[in-house]
Design a protein that fits this description.
Elements (H helix, E strand, L loop, with lengths): L41 E9 L3 E4 L5 E4 L4 E8 L7 E8 L6 E5 L10 H9 L3 E5 L10 H4 L27 H27 L5 E7 L1 H12 L6 E5 L5 H16 L10 H13 L39 H12 L1 E2 L6 E3 L16 H5 L8 H7 L20 H13 L7 H5 L3 E7 L8 H14 L14 H7 L2 E6 L13 E2 L2 H10 L5 E7 L7 E8 L3 E5 L11 E5 L15
Parallel strand pairs: 6-7, 6-8, 8-9, 9-12, 12-13
Antiparallel strand pairs: 1-4, 2-3, 4-5, 5-7, 10-11, 14-15, 15-16, 17-18
Helix pairs in contact: 3-4, 5-10, 12-13
Length: 577
């Protein structure tokens, strides 16, 4: 299990344990001949055989992927507009193709190819493809620039020159369109054409798998291009992107409002331990768990850690720190009308690990992470305190509409009409870590509930309804959500964070068997093969409840049960779902 990274981890998180790999047909076109393919708005840059079993990933320092089957590596540049430059790669197994096509996603603002996704794909027998989303790469630290030095954050002096700030995608609407939805669609179309030319036949089925930005890509495909894929796997989807990035601004402002608002090193762990002490075992999970099974059942109030009787931080919280945590849980709120713009963080995701991309991460930055998106609207001046609108004074009442007016249509995958995807037999599996410190876990629940509402011709949450919920049954005939206890953003965390969701998706598409549970594993130190415990992931709205006897380390001792009438933070309609 790899470490969690900014907006990363998609298909490669899955183990692909049950996907059958069949022998490939004879190659219809030699790999090198693919470079002469003539495709619309496409230049094939290279087509080379790789039979070494390894691939050296470009970078500083470079890393090496091992255990690869022989494959044909194709690189291409797509130019759907005069201002576009979308890089894609297609990796084609030469002896073990399973007859399936796999599109994969990436993270953040992308900007480069996610080679780990391609490697995982071909190891499982897929013809796999990935894209840089047209945002390019200039080596800027992705924590500040979203994998792209041209995306903004000129105040990050360690990684860019504030005297000559780049304007990024400001004034480049075609590139923003590529990033939002066009790059993945064209990657898919061209990838299928290249695979078809290589194998001399079309893939029998096509799948997409991605987490975070990859999850946004996944939902955008289901909504805008419903015929591209037969099965789609969307993890921790950044689907409501403009408001998610506003939440990043809000979180940074929250901790930087005054020096006293900072949560000191070690205090997030202190808070997490208090949350677990109050709530573990009361939400369906076992009393020995180090994570929450359903955080919505936890009413922890950070006031309970307020310093009294001479006690001092870091052993307790000051009044200012209590305010920080209350706002952390409450979400991004319009200060004038009180409307919720984006849900807050669930209790149980508190961590001092900066790699989890939560509050401890935001505190250390000179400006909010991933705020490059706002440079696209306000220009390079957004990075300067003297400007009318900047990251420190962003007005969550007046400036929100300007961002949405310019970007929401291109970036937000918020449509809940998946009728065309459903009608052609498409299947969607969503998953999200309950302890995600970056993208609030409630976001995926809100989207799924909105699907149920759309299928029921009105808002109908996915919970218990006397006599059954026909809208929920209709939604679950093509879309299912699995919440993952104790998992951080796409991976990591104290819960069962390793699982194969792609094999159940393939089985659903090709055999008609809808998944009720997915087996998840927690490895010791998150490193196979030593297993710490297993746990079933239940189809939402069910959660895994301990049976009360037997080892809580064994999944078989848990039963999936529905929780009734659970509260979920829902944005105001103009910002939802």
């Amino acid at each position: 299990m790899r470490r969690h990274r900014p907006y990363r981890v998609g298909a490669s998180m899955a183990l692909f344990a049950g996907i059958l790999i069949a022998s490939s047909p004879a190659m219809a076109t030699p790999c090198s001949n693919l470079q002469s393919l003539q495709l619309q708005h496409t230049v094939i840059n290279s087509a080379t055989d790789n039979s070494t079993g390894t691939f050296v990933v470009p970078g500083n320092p470079p890393t090496t992927i091992t255990g690869l089957p022989p494959f044909c590596r194709v690189t291409a540049t797509l130019t759907p507009s005069s201002d576009s430059s979308i890089k894609i790669e297609i990796w084609l197994p030469e002896g073990t193709w399973n007859g399936r096509f796999l599109g994969t996603g990436g993270g953040g603002f992308q900007g480069d190819i996610t080679y780990s996704e391609l490697a995982s794909g071909i190891k499982a027998g897929f013809a796999a493809t990935n894209s840089d989303l047209g945002t390019g790469s200039s080596g800027c630290n992705p924590l500040f620039c979203g994998s792209n030095g041209n995306m903004g954050n000129p105040l990050a002096t360690e990684f860019g020159d504030p005297a000559a700030p780049s304007t990024g995608l400001f004034g480049h609407p075609e590139r923003i369109k590529d990033f939002g939805f066009r790059a993945i669609h064209l990657m898919t179309v061209r990838g299928k054409e290249i695979a078809g030319a290589f194998y001399g036949q079309r893939a029998k089925t096509a799948y997409f798998a991605g987490c975070s930005t990859g999850g946004q890509n996944a939902l955008m495909e289901a909504q805008r291009f419903p015929d591209d894929y037969d099965g789609i796997l969307a993890g921790a989807a950044a689907f409501n992107r403009t408001h998610l990035h506003m939440a990043g601004l809000f979180g940074w402002q929250n901790t930087h409002a005054s020096p006293g608002r900072f949560i000191q090193p070690g205090q997030m762990t202190l808070i997490n331990q208090a949350v677990l002490k109050q709530c573990v075992g009361h939400d369906g999970g076992a009393g020995t768990d180090q994570f929450l099974t359903d955080p919505r059942d936890c009413g922890f109030d950070p006031k309970s850690l307020l310093c009294t009787g001479g006690k001092q931080p870091p052993a307790c919280l000051t009044a200012d720190q209590v305010t920080t945590m209350q706002k952390y849980y409450a979400g991004t709120i319009d200060p004038v009308n009180g409307q919720l713009i984006n849900p807050g963080s669930e209790r149980g995701n508190e961590t001092d690990d900066v790699l989890a991309l939560g509050l401890a991460f935001q505190e250390q930055l000179p400006e909010p992470a991933f705020d490059g998106l706002f440079y696209w609207v306000f220009g390079p001046s957004f990075g300067y305190p003297s400007s009318k609108v900047n990251f420190a004074n962003f007005d969550f009442h007046r400036a929100v509409d300007k961002v949405d007016d310019q970007l929401a249509e291109m970036l937000n995958a918020t449509s809940t009409d998946l009728g065309e995807f459903r009608e052609h037999g498409g299947k969607l599996i969503m998953y999200h870590g309950w302890a995600d410190p970056l993208i609030p876990s409630q976001s995926s629940i809100n989207y799924f509930n909105a699907l149920v509402g759309n299928d029921g011709h009105g808002f109908q949450p996915a919970g218990f309804v006397p006599g059954g919920n026909p809208a929920l049954r209709r939604t679950q005939s093509y879309a299912r959500l699995f919440m993952v206890p104790g998992m951080y953003h796409c991976s990591g965390g104290p819960g069962p964070n390793t699982f194969d969701a792609l094999t159940p998706l393939v089985n659903w598409v090709e055999n008609g068997t809808a998944p009720e549970t997915i087996l998840a594993t927690k490895f010791v130190a998150d490193t196979p093969p030593a297993v710490q415990f297993t746990r079933p992931l239940c189809v939402f709205p069910k959660v895994a409840q301990y049976n009360g006897s037997g080892s809580s380390s064994i999944a078989a001792n848990f039963t999936c049960v529905a929780h009734d009438h659970e509260f979920n933070q829902t944005p105001a309609p103009k910002y939802g779902p």
